[in-house]
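Continuing the series of single-chain predictions for the mutant panel. This is the parent chain; the variants come on the following pages.
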Amino acid sequence: MPPSSNSSTDGYDIAFRLLLAVLAVVVPLSNIAWLSGNITAYLTDLPWAPYQPTAALLHPDQLWPHAGETSLLIGTRIVPVAVLLALGAAAGVLWSRHKNRGGGRKKKITGMAKARDIEPLMAKAITDKARSLRPSLKDAKRINAKDTGVLLGNLQGTKHEVRMGYEDVAVAIMAPRSGKTTSLAIPSILNAPGPVLLTSNKAAGDAYTATLDARAEVGRVWSMDPQQIAHAAREMWWNPLASAKTLDGANRLAGHFLAGSVDASQQGDFWSKAGSNILSQLLLAAALDERPITDIMQWLAFPADRTPLDILRDHGFAAVAAQLKGTVEGPPETRDGIYETARQYAAALLNSEIAAWVTPQKDVAEFRPSEFVTSTDTLYLLSKDGGGGASALIAACADAVMRAATAQAERAGGRLDPPVLAILDEAANVCKISDLPDLYSHLGSRGVIPITILQSYRQGQKVWGDAGMDAMWSASTVKVIGSGIDDPDFADKLSRLIGDHDVETTSTSHSESGKSTSVSMRQERILPADAIRALPKGTALCFATGMRAAALDLRPWYLEPGAEELSAASARASKGITARAVAKHAPKRSDFGKAV
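Parent structure:
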């Protein structure tokens, strides 16, 4: 049987490819042989041969008849082969690096938003928006990029900067060591045009030390460190009762103590509500009588003390006084349970070192949120994870700043200029503001720009509940997702939000009439859940309201101009923390005497 046309076609394809392979070796090898032979001839005082690469490879003795056999062997055989092998190896290495991007560097994600898809976050649009939002920039001929918005990163694979404007509110979900501090918190703080608030549970080698000196150059630095994370000297005190002279204000303050002690799922039971109510009533009494907040611990220890009742009545809060009296005179077992619950919520106030930060101190400046929001100062709020009442005070102070900023914006015509930047790092651990999801709906329009940084979506659900976290997610105009997302449900949710794209599929079939090729299109997830989980460090996903999801290359501060100076300043600040810690815990001479 004669061979089919299909077999003949395949044979021709193989022959053609073999011919190309031979030419790919012979052509460069013959040229190298000619060049190497001439170099050898030149070194042995022989004339330069004309350009005949084929002869140089096959008959070198004809081109260089007076050259010795050894010279020809080395110059036209050994050297060309060695050079060709070296070039081949180098090409292989370069191709491997290009293909694998350094064996672990991030690959560009296809199907994501292009610059035109997120134009409102690009330089021109974000600059135009800044002019309209900030009257101080309206007539400026040139506006610095840092005055237009918060840098999120570069659109992946490009030099286009992606920024969120100073009316956006953001949630960033990034695992530890995924760039949330180095690429988001620190650059945002360094480039903020107005006052900055940072909450954190770390100091050395973190946003605190990296930005401390730089922010001190633009305004005063306030550090509230009740649990001595940075071992900072107490150079400020803040009065949490300043905003508790109304029942709503007292309820908010009590709510911070409640949120700092129990999770959202436990805040609805009888004892939690009752304990929070008693705490609110006592805080209101202390605020009205301009007492230090620590006085409530005396009242909690002795429920029969009538002082808070008298204060509430004297200031026209008869109904609140009646509620307090009803609890005090109720069944002893119920009353004791309620008061014990309230004591647990406010237990941190029993610690004199913590209490000193929130009670009047001689020769120490008082931090006033109303003045802070019109300055270019920086407030660092530091607390340990699970800090109980200490984290409640941190949340209360952050809340007081944002509420003061909102009030100032209303007095200024609706929006602050420059805006207040609130970086709520480790918010689920040290800044549990229970109604933060509700605040997100209007803070941006007031020029108060919160960026809540969480390690996972579930971490937010634990603090604010499912409905609360969903509300914050929905209200956030910008969402940044970094590497380390291990929650399969959340990863799949993100995958669906990113969407699908058309993928070209080529299929080949063989028949008696020959080989046929067909091309078809099919829908495929741009980023399946497993790809989101495997996002490389230095890459983030950006979801902005009304726009396609974009892939970003993060911009860590240590790769930016001026990083050496900032690194040196951070190192000095970290050494200062270490020195203060050593000095504080070093044994005193009297201790040695006692031991002897």
